[in-house]
Amino acid sequence: MPSELVRLIGKRLAQLLIVLLIVSFFTFLLVRLLPGDPTNVIIPFGTDAQREALRSDLGLDKSFLGQYWSYVTGLLQGDFGTQYSSGRPVSDLVNQSLPVSLQLMIYAQFLALFFAIPLGILTAYRNGTRTDNALNTSAFALLALPNFVLALLLSFFVGAELKWLPTGGYAPGLLDGIFDSSRSPDLDEHIRFMILPAITLAVGQIAVYMRLLRSDMIATLQENFITMAKAKGISNRRILWRHALRPSSLTLLTVAGLNVGTLIGGAVVVEVIYQIPGMGLKIFQAINAREYVELQSYIVVIATLFVLINFFVDFLYSVLDPRIRRARAAV
Amino acid sequence: MPAPPSEPFGRQVESAAETIVGESVDAGFLGEGAEIRASAVSAGNEGKRSRGKPFGLGAKLAMGWMAFVVVMAILAKAGILTWGDAQESVARCARKGPFADEGGASGYLLGCDSNGRNMAARLALGAWTSMLVATGAIALGFLVGGTLGLTAGYFSGKVDTFLTGMFNVLLSVPSVIMALALVAFLQGSPSEAATSGLPAEMILIIAIGVVSVPLVGRITRASALSWAQREFVLAARAQGAKNGRVMAREVLPNVLPAMFSISLLGIAVAIVAEGTLSILGVGVRPPTPSWGNIIALDRGNLFKSPHIVFEASILIFLTVLSLNYLGDVIRARFDVREGAL
Fold first, then answer.
1. Nearest Cβ partner of A214 from B41, B181, B302?
2. Do A268 and B180 touch (CB under 8 A)?
3. Does A36 or B35 have the greater pLDDT score?
4. Between A34, A212, A299, which is nearest B37 by CB?
5. Taking Cα atoms as reference points, which of B144, B139, B112 lies closest to residue B260?
6. A-chain residues within 8 Å CB-CB of B194?
7. Fewer CB atoms inside 10 A, N or C side of chain A?
8. Would an 8 Å CB–CB cutoff place A115 in contact with chain B?
C-alpha cells in the first residue's frame, strides 16, 4: 500500500509538472502575442534609444525561447518578475490578490455545499413528489441566471434599495493577514463586503450540486446495503446522512473540486462588478494595462491551483469510498 | 469505455468525472458549472424515452419564446420592425423607464437608455447581435472541437492522448480569462495602429468559439470512442473503407445527436459569455447594441434607472432558460446518455 501510494504521488507530480510546463509555455506565447508595447506603458514619451535600452533591461530583446527560459527558471525560484508600471515584484501582487480570491471562493463553495447537500438529500428522499419538483424547477431557473445579472440584481435590491450591505469594496480577512502580515484583518467589515459576492457565486453552484447529489443519491438508495440498514431498523435520517451520503458524494466532490479552479474564472466578473481586488479584477486590469509579466503570473498561479486541487480530490476519493482504495491497492 | 478488470472502480469514477467535465455547460460561463450534467438526471435517470411524445407546455413556451426572439432579431436587423430608431437620442426620454411620469417616456414601450435611445428598438437589434455572436461562436466551436474530438475518439492511442492532453491544458485556464485574453489579442490596442481590423462581432465569435473547442471536443471524443469500437465500423473497415470515410459516414452520424443536444445549451452559454465579456469592457463596440453591452453601458445607472439593466437581463434570462429547457427536451428525445458509455 505505501509503495502504491508513492507511485501514485510520483505519477501525479509528473503530470503536474507537464501540465504546468505546457500551460506556462502557452500563456507565455499568448501573452507575448497580445498587442501593445510594454515600453509604451513604462515610458510613454521616451525616445527610441531609451526604449531600446529599456527593452534590453527587461530582457525583451532576447529570443522568444530565451525569454521563456529565464521566465521559467525565475518561476522555480519564486521570482515572478516585476510589474512594468510600478516596478513592484509581481509576487507581492499575487500575495495580495490571491488570498482575496481564495476567500471568496471558499465562502462561495461553503455556502453552496451548505445549502446543496441537505437539498440534494431531501429531493432524493422525496423523489417524484411535489417538493422534489418544486426544488428541481427552482434549480433549473437558477441555472439560467448569469452571474453578472445576479450580481446586479443583488446590489440593486439588497445594496441600494434595502441598504443592508455595501455594493462594492473590500476589507482584509484572515487569509490576507496570513499572506501579507502588514494587512490586519477587519473581520466584521470583511464579512459585510463578501456576503453579496459569495452569494452571487454560490447560487448557480447550489443548483448544480443539488441536482448532482440527487441523482447519485437516488441510485445509492436502491442498493442492497440500504435495504439492509432499513431492515435493521435504522432511522431514515441516519440512513440518509450516515449510510447513503458518503458513497453518493463522489461525483459531487469531483465537480466541487473542479469548480474551485473554474470559480476563479467565474469570479472575474463578480470581482469587477463588486470591485473586489482579487485575482479576477487584477487580471482584468492587467489585460487592459498590457502588463504581460503580471498577467502570465496570475494565469500560471490559477492553473497550478487547479491542477493541485484535482490532485487532492483524487486522494479524497479513496478516503470516501473504501472500494476505490481496495481497487487501487490491487493494481 | 470497457473498464479494465484490474481497477473497476477507479476507472469508473474517472470516466464519470470525465463525462462531467466534458459536459459542463451552464449559465455561469463556458465550463463553469454543469447544466447538462444536471439535465442527464431528468432525461436519463428514470430511463424513460420520450421520443414520439407530444411536447409539453414548457417546451411549447420555450419554443414560442425562441421563435419570438429570433423573428424579432431578424425583423429588427432587416429594418422592418417599427419600434423606433435604435440610435436616435431623444433628450426628454433619457433614463426614463416605461412607467415614468407623463411627458417623459410616453410613446416608448420600454422607456429609454441613458442617451435617450428607444429601449425596445435597441433590445430588438441587440437580440440580433447577441444571437449572431452566440450562434457563430458555437458553430465555430462545433466545427473545430467536433473534428478534433472525432479524430481523437476514432484513432484513440497516441492521437487521442495528445488531443485529450491539449483539451485538458486548455481547460486548466479558466474560460473567462482565456476568452478575455483572446479578445484583447484579436482586438489590438485601440491606441496603436496595429489593430487587427476585424469587426468586434467576429472577434467575439472567434474568442468564444475557441474557448468552447475543448468542451465540445471532449464530449465528441467520449461519444466517438464508443462508436468507433462497434462492429459496423469494423465491417466498413474490412470492406476497405478509408479512415476519412469511416469517420464521416459511420461514426459521425452516430455522434451527431449527442452534439446537437448540447448545441442549444452551448448557444445559451455563449449568450451569457457575450454579456460577461461586455461587462468586462471587451464586448461589441457601441453604438451597435447587444444585450450584453446594453447592460454594460448603463451599469453605472443601475440605482437611478434600473429598467435599462433589468430589461436586458430579463431577455437574457428568458432566452437562456428556454434554450436550456429545449436542450433538455432534445436530449430526452434522442436519449443521449454520456454516462452510459
1. B41
2. yes
3. A36
4. A212
5. B139
6. 35
7. N
8. no
pLDDT at residue A114, rounded to an integer? 93
pLDDT in tens, B201-237: 888 999 999 999 998 898 888 888 888 888 888 898 8
Does A63 or A214 have the greater pLDDT score? A214
Q: For B38, which residue in chain A has the nearest alpha carbon? A: A211
User: Secondary structure of chain B in the HEC alphabet?
Assistant: CCCCCCCHHHHHHHHHHHHHHHCCECCCCECCCCHHHHHHHHHHHCCCCCCCCCCCHHHHHHHHHHHHHHHHHHHHHHCCCCCCCCCCCCHHHCCCCCCCCCCCCCCCCCCECCCCCEHHHHHHHHHHHHHHHHHHHHHHHHHHHHHHHHHHHHHCHHHHHHHHHHHHHHHCCCHHHHHHHHHHHHHCCCCCCCCCCCCHHHHHHHHHHHHHHHHHHHHHHHHHHHHCCCHHHHHHHHCCCCHHHHHHHHHHHHHHHHHHHHHHHHHHHHHHHHHHHHHCCCCCCCCCCCHHHHHHHCHHHCCCCCHHHHHHHHHHHHHHHHHHHHHHHHHHHHCCCHHHC
pLDDT (tens digit, 9 = 90+) per residue, A245-282? Answer: 888 887 788 788 777 766 777 788 899 888 888 888 88
What integer is the mean pLDDT of B151-179?
83
Distance (Å) from the alpha carbon of B162 to chain A's nearest alpha carbon: 12
Min distance A158 CA to chain B CA atoms (Å): 11
Alpha-carbon distances, residue B214 vs A301, A314, B147, B180 (angstroms): 21, 22, 11, 17
Cross-chain residue pair B279–A263, CB shorter than 8 Å: no
Q: How far B75 CA lies from chain A's nearest CA (Å)?
A: 26
Q: Cβ separation of B316 and A268 shorter than 8 Å?
A: no
- Chain A residues touching residue B18 (CB < 8 angstroms): none
Of A164-178, A219-233, A267-281, B249-263, minimum mean pLDDT range? A164-178
